Amino acid sequence: MDNWTEPPLVPSVGFDDSAGNGRLTYTGARPVLANVMMNLSVESEKKALISLRVGINGAVGGAGSEISASAEHNHEVLALTTTAAAVIQPGDFISCFGRSDKNDDLTVVTAHISIVTSPI
Q1: Is the dihedral of CA 94, 100, 103, 105 positive or negative?
Q2: Domains plus CATH for the chain?
Q3: What is the per-residue pLDDT for 66?
Q4: pLDDT given at position 69
Q5: Backbone phi, then psi, for 50, in 5-degree steps?
């Protein structure tokens, strides 16, 4: 018998960002499969290759979670979307990593993170 007490597809139930460290920490009572989608608009100071990836406990969130795009102009804003799916345990955290091949600062213009969990 499944003792799961939450509906199987409740978006973002059991996550907390109150630590102020830029991470979403899973606060649920049992492991779940988390499907994560991140949509970010980022601005690069210079022409550069911009990469974005989902992090699960600081590691790449599964195969294919990194996406890259080229900024062809200075101060260009790029919209990037990436996904990851992983089994997470209570206390695990989800974060987003961005980088530029020119080592410039990236400015996040907009961000949307969607997490849908289901029992395992």
Answers
A1: negative
A2: 10-102 (2.60.120.40)
A3: 85
A4: 92
A5: -105, 135
Give Cβ neighbours of residue 102 (< 8 Å, ≥ 6 apart): 44, 45, 46, 47, 48
Mean local confidence (pLDDT), 33-49: 90
How large is the greatest C-alpha to C-alpha distance in the chain, in angstroms? 58
Per-residue pLDDT, 92: 93
Give me the residues paired with residue 71 across strands: 48
Identity of residue 85: A
- Determine the Cα–Cα distance for residues 38 and 96; give it in Å rounded to an integer: 8
CA-angle at 55, arms to 51 and 61, nearest 5°: 95
In this prediction, residue 9 carries a pLDDT of 41
Confidence of residue 13 (pLDDT cuts 50, 70, 90): low
Share of the chain above pLDDT 70, in %: 85
One-letter amino acid of 108: V
Of 104, 109, 21, 15, nearest in space to 58 by CA: 21
The residue with tokens 């460290």 is: 21
